[in-house]
Amino acid sequence: xxxxxxxIDDATSSTYVNILWQNGCMPKALPVVDxxxxxxxxxxxxxxxxxxxxxxxALRLKALxxxxxxxxxxxxxxxxxxxxxxxxxxxxxxxAESTVSHHLSQLRRAGMVESERRGMNVYHRPRRDSLVAxxxxxxxxxxx
Length: 144
Known about the structure:
Layout: H1 6-22, H2 51-64, H3 67-77, E1 84-85, H4 86-93, H5 97-109, E2 113-118, E3 121-126, H6 128-138
Antiparallel strand pairs: 1-3, 2-3
């Protein structure tokens, strides 16, 4: 059983954060990068990549670094109609619509999914150009 005393722990945490801040040791926030457009830089295999290019690629890969998101992208790519309603995606992955909506918003911010509201439903479709660009930048021979 814990003897948590909020004021002592909070004061200790606050002091620690203040010391880090004063010493300039606080971690820096990542810069804001527009990931809504397909990634556009030299292929990773072409030679050493610069910091900006690496960050652009990493942010997109981070959006895909979740099994549910990979499954959602797969479902979107395999949709006969080219788009799928969010409610159908939720049923397909066995998660709540709000959870699927969160995952889709991450994919949308990374520029991999487009969404359109129609009445009470939201339909999603993959942005093939963004995913092909990501594939190409990782391996220029991948998508030929």
